[in-house]
Amino acid sequence: MAAVPGSARLVLVEGVVHLNEPQAVFEAMLKGWERQQRSRLLGDATIRQRERLVRRFTEFAESFPWGWSASDVEDFTVSLTSGDDRLAHSTIRGYHLALRMFCDYLTDSRYEWVRQCRDRFGQVPTQVCHEWNTVAHLNEYEGRPQRRPFTVDELQGLFDYLDDQVGRIGAAGRKGSASALRDTVMIKTAYAYGLRRNELARLDLADLRPNPHMPQWGGYGSVHVRFGKASKGSLPRRRTVLTVPEFDWAVDGMRHWVEQVRPLFRAADHPALWPTERLTRVSTRHIDQRFAAARDALGLDPALSLHCLRHSYVTHLVEFGYPERFVTEQVGHAWASTTAIYTSVSNDFKNRALKKALGRVYHPNEPRGDRQ
């Protein structure tokens, strides 16, 4: 029978005597698990992160996987939730999930690790992560509750501040006005198209597309996102985000940047939509820093991040009356339930909706108190 990727026979040579057999078998297990994950097209960063966790847990348990027990998981969890550096609920749940997957791999008969451990050590690996000793996934959203959409006034203040910064730098004749305008248009684009920071940073000029139904917008009728958030083991998810009439103000800013300011960077041969003075691509770190500087200068809540602009985009599309399916497609969510998590309609919107509902229920000339 052919060995499957990650099986023991592919990473352990039968009959070879190791000076430190437990350590050699453990390293072979990690190597086999790496091969198994690569066969599923998982990314290098994911694989390395999981390997570090398994090594960390092995060191904590002071035993190799064939000696692990459920109580080791419980003690490990307590250590993660103790002290000032306690980890978030979602992080611990991710740790438990990774350990469970590693144990699933070891106990799967196709990979032959049970036989290897029984023959070599007289013990076998077992599944040590169970429902009763791991964190339950009770909520679809486990992010920080402090994060929320921007209010309309906060958005207006943020954009006014960014525009003023460009004007001040230009009026003072200081170097950097072109970069400041780039950053301003970039942050506005993140909101106007509901983009994640990585999606924003990796946009190319070629990703700006026309919308035949809106010729007046020229080549700025849509944005093609090629590096959308990927599911585990899959390639980045692509989508096309249409410019919507309520955000058509973004078209003028984008056109001004692309056609008048970007050429000053002499980046004609560079594909990036947002090049730097050194003709590299603007990094996500730079975007975060630029956003945080504006937020802090305005005295806004430190919990607000660039990603909150995406929350605002979803919220405002809902308030504008766009169908749920359209909003889900615009932001690249696989499920409408995920989009719903992002939605937090404003009090003004809810008051308007309530007023409309009351108009349907009560007759115009009928006193509300008389209705049964």
- Strand order within the widest beta sheet: 1-2-3
Strand content: under 5%
The number of E-state strands comes to 3
| Number of helical regions | 15
Whole-number average pLDDT?
85
- Catalogue the unreliable spans: none
Q: What is the distance, rounded to the nearest whole angstrom, between the alpha carbons of the first and last residues?
A: 77 Å
Q: Overall 3D geometry?
A: elongated
Any idea what the CATH superfamily of the largest domain is called?
Intergrase catalytic core
Rg over alpha carbons: 27 Å
User: What is the string of SSEs from the N terminus onward?
Assistant: HHHHHHHHHEEEHHHHHH
In CATH, the architecture of the largest domain is Orthogonal Bundle
* Named CATH topology of the largest domain: hpI Integrase, Chain A
Please give the CATH class of the largest domain. Answer: Mainly Alpha
Number of domains: 2
Oligomer: single chain
Give the class from helix and strand content and strand pairing. Answer: mainly alpha
Main sheet overview? 3 strands, antiparallel
